[in-house]
Amino acid sequence: MCVLQVIGVVVADTHENAKLAATKVVIEYEELPAILSTQEAVDAKSFHPNSEKCLKKGDVDLCFQSGQCDKIIDGEVHLGGQEHFYLEPQSSLVWTMDSDSEVHMISSTQDLNICTYG
């Protein structure tokens, strides 16, 4: 999977026998295409097995049908950094106050930057 990943262990009764046994190990590598973005991973169906998670609270479909969702923002966000995209699910709750002149947001991010719009 990656450079310097442990792929095997040699166990022997002496150091010399371990070195001799290690010389007899033959490893064959299969060159695979590089997957460099989340979208490429989705397209290639390249996922860790048994890792699908579904987090939900409330009934989104019922909310949409009720007419209480008068503002729906739909789109995509692409981030260049990939070192954290797999660590935590991200979600946000955004609402306006003061005749829509103030926006409040709760987000499950690790970022400590605070933005105020108004």
UniProtKB/TrEMBL annotation:
This is Aldehyde oxidase/xanthine dehydrogenase first molybdopterin binding domain-containing protein. GO terms for molecular function: iron ion binding; oxidoreductase activity. Residues 53-113 form the Aldehyde oxidase/xanthine dehydrogenase first molybdopterin binding domain. It holds the Pfam family MoCoBD_1. The lineage of its organism: Eukaryota, Viridiplantae, Streptophyta, Embryophyta, Tracheophyta. Transmembrane segments: none annotated.
